[in-house]
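Batch manifest line 471
LIGAND: acetyl coenzyme *A
JOB: complex structure
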Amino acid sequence: PENVGILAMEVYFPSSYVDQNKLEDFDGVSKGKYTKGLGQEEMGFCHDNEDINSLCLTVVARLMEKNHVDYKDIGRLEVGTETIIDKSKSVKSVLMQLFDESGNFDVEGVDTSNACYGGTSALFNAVAWVESSAWDGRYALVVCGDIAVYASGNARCTGGAGSIAMLIGPSAPLVIEPGLRASYMRHAYDFYKPDLTSEYPVVDGKLSVQSYITALDNCYQNYCRKASKKIKTKSSTFNLSNIDYMLFHSPYCKLVQKSVARIVLNDYVHQEHQHYSKDDQTQLKDLCQFKDASLDNSIFNKPLETAFVKASECLFERKTKPSLLLARQVGNMYTPSLYSCLASLLISTSLNELTGKRIGLFSYGSGLAASMFSLRVTEHAGLPEVVNPAKVNDLPTFTLHSLVSGLLEIRVKLKQRTQLEPERFTAILECREKTHTLANYSPQSTNEHIFPGTYHLTHVDEKFRRTYERK
Ligand code: ACO
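JOB STATUS: finished
ARTIFACT:
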């Protein structure tokens, strides 16, 4: 099969959010810390009637319905998550309830986890399956979801929640570029969840930022090295000018803006910025004082960082900012974060503009696992190559237009959410703290605020078996 990639996407985020301005006041931090300092506007969160299973049930059911895909046509389903509520039973196995009616239980794949990276690993696995000898002609489904909550303190404002499902197959409007992938994997205790009774991670904030940027440097350089060999460019080398849109895992938007600056610094120290367009080079003219700069020991060099953030502002505005809509208004969804940036870019850019472009993606999961890879937006997509030709006429066609149309309601849904006060948000997190591991438990919150079509937890019985209903 050729041109394997993303055929369709669905995004789900919770219907409740807290305003970061109000959270600054409530937490008593200096005004502007969360909004200007971290670049966040709002943060989505779940009540006690939503868990990782319900988030993933909702997004899969909606993707299948919206795109008229038959559950029989799924041959692999893989979930990336770090929201663990069972040490043995996978979220994937819970999602198999949705397949009951179709009678299709021949579905490969289980869960994958490493902090915010699990979704990318699931995506790579799904693509590999479609490209492999094991492929049986059906679609793969990749699901990522998380509830990102922190103990009260300075990290709490960088939470979020949501789930994303992606349908994977050949002849895709978003093709994963073959052979263009670079990874960086190391051992680090920057963010981890050793206390299995708590939803909260142990975080070394500074180390996590340092690890993220180090992973970015390594992935970017390695990706460019590989791309220089594979792709013909005017300069014969590969740099940011060959990437039309650059998306990042987004713990908070300011780190993403700094990441664009960091890529420009990488190009600058390797003299690659000389291949930028005239206009883009003009923006960098004030950087000559850093002509001897190196990447070593530069991560916490404030004057250098500030100068590169300023110089790369136009590049950030053009290549990255449109991707931050969900990251800014829902927060860090963990595994779906990078893919929420993809969805945001797609609904913020015209189809004409997108067509033929290369989208670079940087995925980071603490601990640590990181990869850079790219998507090519194709002009049009053909019918999926199915095993049974008799079925071709019944199958939905996936085009860039259908993919983007399916995502347009994101903006409507963002507006339909309910804003809750920081006091209420804090009380709900306290409730989750006390109850999220209980047996014989029925959620205290009502379902009035959740969006129609959302799955919610109804009961956890005395043997910890969870049941769900759909609103
Ligand atoms: N107005 C404007 N800016 C302000 C203000 C203000 N009133 N107050 C502070 N700031 C700026 C600071 O100068 C700082 O900017 P800088 O990063 O450019 O230096 C920024 O706001 C943040 O302030 P800090 O004091 O550095 O924030 P703090 O250390 O309290 O927390 C952190 C930030 C570490 C990100 C914390 O929220 C955290 O631990 N989050 C979770 C971990 C995380 O997300 N790591 C990222 C990668 S790993 C992952 O994805 C989970």
